[in-house]
Design goal:
Order of helices and strands of chain B: HHHHHEEHHHHEEEEEHEHHEEHHHH
Largest interface: A-B, 76 and 89 residues
Helix content of chain B: over 70%
Strand order of the largest sheet of chain B: 1-2
Strand order of the largest sheet of chain A: 1-2
Bound molecules: CIS-heme D hydroxychlorin gamma-spirolactone, protoporphyrin IX containing FE
Radius of gyration of chain A: 21 Å
Oligomer: heterodimer
Strand content of chain B: 5-15%
Order of helices and strands of chain A: HHHHHHHHHHHEEHH
Distance between the termini of chain A: 64 Å
């Protein structure tokens, strides 16, 4: 394994983290939108807000991580993708702003109409953004991004069957992960009504994802034959793993075993992502440039490997601390179906 | 021929057949630069608070733990809510910048991404640390013992500092590109550590980090100065004003010193930029310093000329020869008018803030309280905005002063830009978008600030040290 391969592996691990952690946060926005009227959806919205509040910013940094490692270690590919894909990426960037700002703003205002406005902004951009990022992924996977300065087709590189599949799949996967995660979270706060609500949603999303994957086979076969060959060839075992994990997640959901369901759903998504990577290996842009050819000079790769190692030593314990702190709330803390806001209202109490 | 050649062939034909094409391309280049400037200029103000605000919050919380005075806890807790909003907006408006590097400047990134990528990757870790511990800090006021809670804020402060340092080293490199060997258009060897530690890094990073703390200090103090002007006289406003103002006031003279360092650095390393900043066209010994005035036909008129002033400031020697723009090929002149105006605004604001800081210091030293004059508080409100304007002006000086280069004397901006057509429409879209984002952000911050305060003596009452602020 060369340093280029190692760095690609790290980039892809970062991508996986973003898809799973960031994806679940986007999915939270999806369910926020689907939660129904202001009163009826209030519990669900509060749970979503409470669960993603402390973590979404850290989860979002995975995207930054992937981008900066990409432009440092594989600058030609970064330039090609971002210049050709400038339309969906500009849209996604604006979507990211709207999502983050909408979420933070909604928490900070009291008036109902404003909460609704910011809430809808948060929720719709949580769907738009993964969709656009998914179309970019589809364009790359189907070999529509040529090397060079905006040399690809500026429209059809991301408006094509594989991209549409990628975009839709991204939205569905986000919703699926979020529903599975939220079921477990609702159980942790012992809010039976919410557990049931999200369990049903998780099962529904799983069914849609499964159906979409089946349809996807046909699309890829016609529209992205190289990828299709890889997925049915060298990467077939990962695809199989994904199917098994997906089915297992459904079984666990039915059995109300929420933690195993969570693990299985993550595994199902992970193995598809890595299946794509393996199917394309050693190419970074299908048929054009390999990981080795795209890599920066050795001095840069070494500097990156050193920095990433040192960074990981700082990062891993911090990450663990964050998740442990907010995943280990004593049961009953949530007091029935009423998920109380995190900060007690009386914190601003008059000084003694 | 490969696709690149046929493309440029196509472009030549365009130029021949469609006279308007070149103009369109110019419009796109201009739009790309404006878009970059708009997004950066927006992000930077918020980012200043991302760097500075955590320190302020921690100082207040630390004072609470030390003194047991609940007013500090009240301040720290309320500030942390504003910080949460600002941080979220800073994080997402920073993200679009990293997209724009690829969307707008693919040639720059393709060639030099590997040279300047390292600090961005390190910055990524700083962001992680910042975001993780901010999440912990904001959501654990009531879960952790006070001292432990305070401790969880420390990585936020350090992460903010580190991220500002790293990102500015990347910008410093654009001013002083080092750490690579270029053969033709190809980078043939790289030393990313040397690129990060280029000669412009020390003055630029220092100046920026101090600026961030100043913007936060003056900005937060301005909110309380406004309250005092509107008749609030309680201890809450006294401390809410004095703590951030004192932080900023201490840094102001330091910042002017650092600014002087930055200017002397230019004299040695980017003389063309200094010449543009000072509107100096002729190379000369005993170069004068011109303050104010307007640029007419390549000459500064009606300015106040201080003989040998520039030589003194830049080289600490009245007889030093200072390079003028006459030594720079015409097509490499930065736009003097913009650069010089921006620079003068920054310096004028710096001096104004210094006067205000001294006023505050004298009052505090003599009477242990802030000044009483209403004018002082009016000026303090203005200072909150002025500090942010100084940052914008400083960046315009730096960035526009680098023109026409994206990488100083290595790559022109026009070489770096994307070939994608019609990117100006993206810019127009953002031009409409950012004002909306601004209004929403300001509105939400005001809501956060207007959450009712507890009805206590500290808030409603009159503190003797503020009582006599004239109505
Ligand atoms: C609170 C903000 C603030 C204040 C009061 C000042 N500056 Fe500044 N200045 C900045 C904020 C700033 C900045 C926004 O942070 C810049 C942009 C890039 C940088 O490194 O710092 C900057 C850039 C900058 C540059 C260009 C550096 C370069 O291109 O490499 C010079 C020469 C100065 N400054 C000089 C000064 C002087 C002589 C000041 C004296 C009053 C001064 N600044 C006050
Ligand atoms: C670390 C940070 C920064 C980097 C890497 C960076 C990079 C760039 C790039 C690539 C461009 C486009 C090319 C050009 O016109 O020169 C640019 C332009 C510009 N940037 Fe920066 N920038 C940074 C910080 C800032 C900040 C914080 C501001 C805040 C105001 C700023 C203001 C501008 C302006 C005004 C332009 C347009 C120049 C012109 O139109 O002539 N930059 N910068
Ligand atoms: C001098 C200029 C800059 C400074 C001082 C600065 C500083 C900061 C700080 C402190 C944050 C995190 C805190 C917050 O969000 O409030 C932040 C966020 C961010 N900045 Fe900047 N920034 C600058 C310019 C840039 C540039 C040129 C880029 C482009 C790559 C950039 C990319 C980002 C990103 C991606 C984030 C979000 C990270 C997160 O999720 O925490 N920044 N910036």
């Amino acid at each position: 394994m060369t340093s280029a391969d190692t760095l690609m592996g790290i980039t892809w691990a970062g991508m996986t983290a973003y898809v799973i952690l960031g994806g679940a946060d986007f999915g939270g926005g999806f369910w926020d939108l689907a939660a129904g009227g202001t009163r009826r959806g209030a519990d669900q919205r509060r749970l979503i807000e409470r669960v993603i509040g402390p973590v979404w910013e850290a989860n979002h940094v995975w995207l930054i991580f992937v981008i900066v490692v990409l432009w440092t270690a594989f600058p030609a590919v970064f330039a090609a993708v971002f210049s050709t894909m400038y339309l969906p990426l500009t849209g996604a960037a604006v979507g990211i702003i709207l999502r983050g700002a909408g979420f933070a703003f909604r928490k900070s205002v009291e008036e109902l109409p404003l909460q609704r406005l910011f809430g809808v902004t948060f929720a719709t951009s949580s769907i738009l953004t993964p969709f656009l990022l998914g179309t970019v992924a589809g364009g790359i996977a189907s070999g529509r991004v040529p090397l060079g300065n905006a040399t690809g087709d500026l429209i059809h590189s991301w408006v094509n069957p594989t991209s549409i599949l990628g975009g839709t799949m991204a939205v569905v996967v986000c919703a699926y992960l979020a529903a599975v995660f939220l079921t477990a979270d609702a159980a942790r706060y012992s809010t039976p009504r919410l557990v049931e609500a999200f369990r049903i949603r998780a099962l529904g999303a799983a069914a849609v994802a499964g159906a979409l994957a089946l349809a996807g086979i046909a699309v890829l076969r016609k529209d992205a034959p190289t990828l299709y060959q890889g997925l049915t060839g060298g990467a077939a075992w990962l695809v199989l793993l994904s199917v098994i994990a997906g089915v297992a997640a459904v079984v666990f959901l039915v059995l109300r075993r929420f933690w195993p369901a969570r693990v299985a759903s993550v595994l199902a998504v992970m193995s598809i992502l890595w299946g794509w990577a393996v199917a394309q290996y050693p190419y970074m842009l299908a048929g054009q440039i390999t990981i080795q050819e795209a890599a920066a000079h050795p001095a840069t790769l070494d500097a990156m490997l050193v920095s990433l190692t040192v960074g990981a030593i700082l990062l891993v314990p911090s990450m663990v601390l964050l998740f442990v702190m907010f995943q280990r709330t004593a049961p009953g803390d949530g007091a029935g179906d009423d998920v109380t806001p995190q900060l007690p209202a009386d914190l601003d109490r008059p000084p003694a | 021929a490969d696709s690149g050649d046929s493309r440029s062939g196509a472009r030549m034909r365009h130029v021949e057949h469609l006279g308007g094409w070149l103009l369109q391309n110019e419009a796109d280049l201009f739009a790309a630069r404006q878009q970059m400037a708009l997004s950066l200029g927006w992000h930077i103000v918020i980012a200043c608070f991302g760097v500075g605000f955590p320190l302020l919050v921690l100082i207040a919380e630390w004072r609470w733990i030390r003194t047991g005075d609940d007013i500090y806890r009240l301040l720290a807790h309320r500030w942390s809510k504003a910080l949460a909003v600002l941080f979220a907006v800073g994080a997402v408006t920073g993200t679009i910048l990293s997209f724009e590097f690829g969307i707008l400047w693919p040639v720059f990134m393709e060639r030099f991404g590997e040279v300047i990528g390292l600090p961005f990757a390190l910055e990524g870790f700083a962001f992680f640390i910042e975001a993780i511990f901010l999440g912990i800090y904001l959501y654990s006021w009531d879960r952790l013992p006070p001292r432990v809670h305070l401790l969880t804020g420390v990585p936020v402060v350090l992460g903010g500092l580190a991220s500002a340092w790293f990102v500015v080293t990347a910008n410093a490199w654009m001013n002083q590109p080092t750490g690579f060997v270029l053969e033709g258009d190809e980078v043939v060897s790289v030393d990313p550590w040397a690129a990060m530690l280029n000669p412009a890094t020390p003055p630029e990073t220092t100046h920026m980090i101090v600026a961030a703390y100043m913007v936060t200090g003056f900005g937060v103090a301005a909110v309380y100065a406004w309250g005092i002007l509107r008749g609030r006289r309680g201890r809450y406003h006294l401390i809410g004003f004095s703590l951030p103002f004192a932080l900023a006031a201490i840094l102001t003279p330091i910042q002017i010193g650092v600014g002087d360092w930055a200017a002397r650095f230019l004299a040695d390393y980017q003389p063309a930029k200094l010449a543009a900043i000072e509107g100096l066209y002729e190379t000369q010994p005993r170069a004068p310093l011109t303050i104010g005035g307007i640029l007419i036909d390549g000459e500064i008129r009606y300015g106040l000329k201080i003989p040998a002033g520039l030589s003194l400031l830049a080289e600490h020697d009245p007889d030093a020869v200072i390079m003028g723009l006459d030594q720079v090929p015409e097509d490499q002149h930065p736009p003097v008018g913009v650069v010089r105006t921006a620079f003068q605004i920054m310096v004028a604001i710096g001096m104004g803030l210094l006067v205000l800081s001294i006023w505050f210091a004298v009052a505090w030293w003599r009477h242990r309280r802030p000044p009483r004059a209403r004018w002082f508080y009016r000026a303090a409100v203005a200072a909150g905005f002025a500090a942010a304007v100084a940052v914008e002006a400083g960046w315009i000086t730096t960035e526009v002063g680098r023109q026409p280069w994206i990488v100083w004397e290595v790559m022109r901006v026009s070489e770096a830009v994307t070939d994608a057509p019609n990117i100006r429409y993206g810019y127009y879209g953002l031009l409409a978008f950012y004002p909306v984002l601004t209004v929403a952000t300001v509105y939400v911050l005001r809501r956060v600030g207007s959450v009712p305060l507890p009805e206590s003596e500290d808030v409603r009452g009159e503190d003797p040290r503020l009582r006599e602020v004239r109505q």
